[in-house]
């Protein structure tokens, strides 16, 4: 499988499989299919409640554990049914739990829980799910500690903008190797993409297909031209657009045929003029979890 090299030398596959909201035996079945298709990277999070299922598959494939790249996230255990009105259990100064625990204790506990569920003794990349403003620097410091211990082969962030990354740069010598964000031709985050490129931070694109049915894309003359030119479907165009920028997409599908189609995203390459054409569709459109659930944004 083709890979990108993170700045610490760790290799990350050029495409991964997203796993939210898959879980249980269904996820185990899909992950096995994905492995036989050729996927070697899987994106999960403590608050997807599916690390156990991924761990079961890892356990059965222990002979190829070193070929598999697991990216997981630490989160605040927010009550997902009322995300806008509740603070998380962790990483908020006003949370009763944090009166008795340090951010370092929480990070260690969350990482140990993930390792237990994933049935592995290391994670290939651990990221902070959101830049929790009360404890952002403390969380990062604790993650560096676990990285240096070898429990984490690489560390990164998610949903971070330039100012969050600058904050880490001003305070630490170990910077994120990865930033997992949502971008699409309707929300290109161009300055952030340039910033990460300059700082050697590998971008991972979550929800790369989220706008697949958006009329602004489907009805755009630019998209129609590209669909005709490359003779692929719209999902393929979106994944090619990621690849042409050196960004790792992590599409999720509950259908084996779509897992296969998405994995084939590399069969045609997009030329840079067409990447630019798609940039011209930018609307700074916000994807829901970024704008509503996201602390620290
Ligand atoms: N860091 C973060 O804050 C964050 C936030 C959101 C997501 N994520 C991660 O990113 C992953 C992907 O994001 P996502 O699942 O929200 O969105 P996505 O992967 O962009 O889109 C998933 C949707 O597209 C459909 N789909 C997949 N392949 C398709 C194809 N070839 N043609 C047509 N439709 C297709 C899927 O339906 P079917 O399943 O029915 O095929 C599903 O409805 C998640 O699973 C998660 O791992 C991270």
Automatic annotation (TrEMBL):
GO terms for molecular function: oxidoreductase activity, acting on the CH-OH group of donors, NAD or NADP as acceptor. Keywords: NADP, Oxidoreductase. Residues 15-282 form the NADP-dependent oxidoreductase domain. The keyword Electron transport does not apply. CDD domains: AKR_AKR1-5-like. PROSITE patterns: ALDOKETO_REDUCTASE_3. The keyword Membrane does not apply. The record marks 73 as: Lowers pKa of active site Tyr. Substrate binds at residue 129. The active site is at 48 (proton donor). InterPro entries: AKR, Aldo/ket_reductase_CS, NAD(P)_OxRdtase_dom_sf, NADP_OxRdtase_dom. Gene3D superfamilies: NADP-dependent oxidoreductase domain. Pfam families: Aldo_ket_red. PANTHER family: 2,5-DIKETO-D-GLUCONIC ACID REDUCTASE, NADP-DEPENDENT OXIDOREDUCTASE DOMAIN-CONTAINING PROTEIN. Belongs to the aldo/keto reductase family. This is Aldo/keto reductase. It comes from Bacteroides cellulosilyticus. The lineage of its organism: Bacteria, Pseudomonadati, Bacteroidota, Bacteroidia, Bacteroidales.
């Amino acid at each position: 499988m083709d890979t990108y090299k993170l700045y610490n030398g760790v290799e990350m596959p050029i495409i991964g499989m997203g796993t939210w909201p898959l879980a249980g035996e269904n996820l185990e079945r899909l992950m096995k299919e994905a492995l036989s298709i050729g996927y070697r990277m899987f994106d999960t999070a403590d608050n997807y409640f599916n690390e156990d299922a991924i761990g079961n598959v890892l356990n059965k494939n222990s002979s190829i554990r070193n070929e598999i790249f697991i990216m997981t996230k630490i989160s605040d255990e927010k009550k997902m049914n009322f995300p806008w009105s509740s603070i998380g259990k962790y990483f908020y100064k006003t949370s009763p739990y944090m009166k008795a625990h340090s951010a370092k204790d929480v990070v260690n506990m969350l990482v140990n829980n993930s390792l237990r569920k994933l049935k592995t003794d290391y994670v290939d990349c651990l990221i902070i799910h959101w830049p929790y403003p009360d404890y952002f620097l403390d969380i990062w410091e604790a993650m560096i500690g676990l990285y240096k211990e070898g429990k984490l082969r690489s560390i990164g962030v998610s949903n971070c903008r330039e100012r969050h990354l600058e904050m880490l740069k001003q305070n630490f010598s170990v910077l994120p190797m990865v930033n997992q964000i949502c971008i699409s031709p309707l929300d290109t985050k161009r300055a952030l993409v340039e910033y990460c490129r300059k700082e050697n931070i590998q971008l991972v694109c979550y929800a790369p297909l989220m706008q697949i049915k958006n009329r602004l894309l489907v009805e755009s003359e630019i998209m129609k031209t590209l669909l005709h030119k490359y003779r692929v479907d719209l999902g393929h165009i979106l994944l090619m657009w990621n690849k042409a920028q050196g960004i790792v997409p992590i599409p999720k599908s509950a259908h084996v045929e779509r897992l296969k189609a998405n994995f084939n995203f590399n069969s045609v390459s997009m030329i840079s003029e067409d990447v630019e054409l798609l940039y011209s569709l930018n609307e700074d459109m916000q994807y829901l979890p970024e704008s509503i659930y996201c602390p620290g944004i």
